[in-house]
Write a structure and sequence with these properties.
There is one protein chain. The chain is mainly α and 218 residues long. The protein is 83% helix and 0% strand. The two termini are 37 Å apart.
Length: 218
């Protein structure tokens, strides 16, 4: 066999090997992308449940607020009114998160996927902090103008103390929640579970995909 024929055979084998390696890389890339879509898709069910339960719950709160207003319960109206406002923002936020989740599975551009996951993480973080702010308003919901008028020191003092305690707890949690400091006890409590773990796992998978993209571009 001539040397030229041997060289051609070697080149042919090298080309086949390169094709196999490229195919394997593409398969691994596609499997990783599917894994990302599956992981981020795990958020659809819990977030959809929050929306489906949150809408009638908020409507019920509005009904109580309306009855309280008509009855002259100004503290109750103010307390439940603020909770309704927070719930409104929360539900809109969850609907926005569902949009982001659906967008991730449809996008092929990794930069856009990274952007959507980052927005999802920020939105989840902000909604967790927002939910804390309703805590002190629950103490106002049960106050009575008549009772406060009849006993401003005892009744008013006790309710003021409860409000300040709940306000301090809400303020402390709000200021100590940090998406950067994930190891803190407060962050671990709020940023874990079925609504947060898939986001963390998706971010890790996305890093793998970006590394694959970088290797392919070299």
């Amino acid at each position: 066999m001539h040397s030229n024929e041997l060289i051609n055979i070697w080149k042919s084998q090298d080309q086949k090997l390169d094709n196999i390696l490229s195919l394997n890389k593409e398969l691994v890339y596609d499997m990783t992308k599917n894994k990302l879509n599956t992981t981020i898709g795990m958020l659809k069910v819990p977030k959809s449940i929050v929306v489906l339960l949150g809408i009638p719950y908020t409507i019920f709160l509005y009904f109580i607020t309306f009855i309280a207003y008509k009855s002259g319960g100004y503290f109750v109206t103010f307390g439940f009114g603020m909770i309704c406002l927070i719930m409104n923002i929360t539900i809109i936020g969850y609907i926005y998160q569902l949009y982001l989740i659906n967008s991730v599975s449809k996008l092929q551009n990794i930069v856009e996927v990274q952007k959507k996951i980052s927005l999802l993480k920020i939105s989840s973080f902000n909604l967790a902090r927002l939910a804390i702010l309703q805590l002190p308003f629950w103490s106002i919901c049960w106050m009575s103008v008549e009772a406060l008028w009849n006993s401003p020191i005892i009744y008013g003092g006790i309710n003021l103390m409860v409000f300040l305690i709940l306000f301090y707890i809400a303020y402390w949690i709000y200021t100590n929640l940090s998406i950067e400091n994930k190891e803190s006890k407060v962050s671990k409590i709020f940023f874990s579970g079925i609504e947060w773990d898939p986001i963390v796992k998706s971010s890790d998978i996305l890093i793998q995909i970006i590394e694959m993209e970088n290797k392919k571009s070299k």
